[in-house]
Amino acid sequence: MKVKPPIISAREHAIGLKQYFHKGAKLAKQIGNRGPLKLNKDGKLHNEILEAFKREGFYVFEGVIGSQEIEELRSDIDGLLERAPVGRGSNVDKFGRPAFGQDFKRGTYTFIKPLSDPWGGTELLGGRHPVQMTQPLPAEDAPKETVHLIGGMCQAMNSGLRLYGHPLLLSVAEAVNGKDFVPFNEAVFVKQPGLGGSVAWHQDGVTHWNAPDWDPGIHGFNFQVQLYDSTPANCLWVIPGSHRQGRADIKSLVANNGNSELLPGAIPMPCKAGDVTIANRQILHCSFANTSPDLRIAMTFGFHRRSSVIGAHGALSQGADLFYDEQTVFERSRVIAVAIDARQQYFPKEKRYQYQPFVGLEDDYRWSPEIYERVIRDYNLQDLAI
Ligand SMILES: O=C(O)CCC(=O)C(=O)O
C-alpha cells in the first residue's frame, strides 16, 4: 500500500529541514571546491580547478559576474515576471495587458502550484525524477500558480544573450568539453520565497547511460549564474562524486533512507549574487521547496561535448524524432557566435572569446536586429537535449 505523505505547513517544513541544512553546510565547507574562476596566462582554466570539478562533479566560481551586469539581469528578469501571463493558459499579464512571449513558438513560462514538486514521481522529462519531494502547504493567500521556469533567455532578454557569450564561462566550457563544445539549453529557475517549488532528486542526462564509451563527462554540464545570495534552504544540493558512479537508483536510495528525501552525503551550494556554479549533468542533485524568506533566481545554461550530441536523437524537451546531425548542431551553435558579438558590442573593453567552430565566420554573426530575427528568435526549438 502506498504511504500517504503527511501534510505539513511551510513553517513546519522550514523548521524540519534546519538540522539537515546545518549538517550539509558543514560537509560543504569541508569539501570546499569553490573560489575565483582562474585562467592561466594562455587563457586555459587552471588545472587544479578542472581536476576538482572532475573529481567532485561541481564547483562554485565566486564573484564572476560584476554588479552592473547582475543589476541588468535582475531588471530584465523582473520585467519578464511583471509581464508573465497570470497563469497557465492565460494570455494577459496581471495588468490585463497582452502577456510577454506569445510571439515565440515555444512557451516562455512554466507554472506550478506554489511549493509543489511538478516532476517528482512522474514520467515527465524521461521519468528522471522518480520520487516526489515533500510538498508543504503554501500560505492561504498564496496565488494559485507561480512561475517555476523562464525559458529561452537568449531571445527573451538582451542581458541573457550577453551572459551566454561570457568569455570566462565559455573558456570553462572549452576546458571541460573541448574547443568544439556545443550548446544544450537554457532555463531560469525562479524560487520565490514561500512559493518556489522543489526539483526532486535526479541526474540530468537521459540518453547515454548505456553507451559503450560512457564516462563521467558524457552528458555535459550546466552553469547556474546566481542573481541573489542563496542559502541551503533555496539553493541547489548535490551528492559529490555521484556523477562518476553511473545511473543512481534513486527510488532505493530514498527507500533505504527511511523513505526520506534527506539523502545522506548531500551538500548545498549556497552562493553570493554573481557567483556561478558548474554541475556535471550526471551528478545527483535536487532543490527543496522554498519555504525560506529568500528569493533565488538561477540563470541555467549548459554545454556538451560535440561527440555526445552528433548522431544522437532528441530527449527531454526535444522529440525523439529530432536527429542531431552536423547541420542541426551548427545552427544551434550560431547562438553562441551571436551572443559573443552581442557581448562584445556592449562591453567593448572585455576580451572576446574565440569560439573555434565559428573562427573566420564572425562577420556573418554580428549582433543586430536582423540577426535576432534570423538566428535568435525561436532558437530554442533546436535545443540539443540529451
Ligand atoms: O536550481 C535548481 O533549483 C534546480 C536545477 C536543476 O535541477 C537542474 O538544472 O537540473
UniProtKB/TrEMBL annotation:
Q: Which GO terms describe its molecular function?
A: 2-oxoglutarate-dependent dioxygenase activity; iron ion binding
Q: Does the keyword Iron apply?
A: yes
Concerning InterPro entries, the annotation shows: Phytyl_CoA_dOase-like
User: Known Pfam families for this protein?
Assistant: PhyH
Q: Which UniProt keywords apply?
A: Dioxygenase, Iron, Metal-binding, Oxidoreductase
Q: Does the keyword Hydrolase apply?
A: no
Name it.
Phytanoyl-CoA dioxygenase
Q: What is the lineage of its organism?
A: Bacteria, Pseudomonadati, Pseudomonadota, Gammaproteobacteria, OMG group
